[in-house]
């Protein structure tokens, strides 16, 4: 991909790369894109609904007990599951898998 930027924007990017110690302008732009993606994900999560505890409290009283039991079962399953090391490689794989899923969705929509 090639981008044609104004000299003003190029200078701004060069300054930020130097100030923050990025290896390259590409690394800086990639970081900006990933931060923007994270912001969008947070915004979508907020639109999706309230936190689980607020959601359960919003249910009719007769459904709250069952919802709490289901949540408790899910939490216990998670606690009793095999532990994983969430190191940089783990998160890079998660990110890569996410990107692939998004690309597949976009291709399916096209």
Task: Explain what the structure shows.
- Helix 1 (7-20) packs across helix 2.
- The chain is built from five helices and no strands.
- It is 79% helix and 0% strand.
- The protein has helices at residues 7-20, 25-48, 52-58, 61-80, 88-109.
- The chain is mainly alpha-helical.
Distance between the termini: 20 Å
Structural class: mainly alpha
Low-confidence stretches: none
Mean pLDDT: 87
Rg, rounded, reads: 21 Å
> What is the element string, with H for helices and E for strands?
HHHHH
Assembly type of the chains comes to single chain
Q: Provide the β-strand percentage band.
A: under 5%
- H/I helix tally: 5
What characteristic shape results from the CA principal axes? elongated
Helix content: over 70%
**Strands, count:** 0
What about the largest sheet?
none
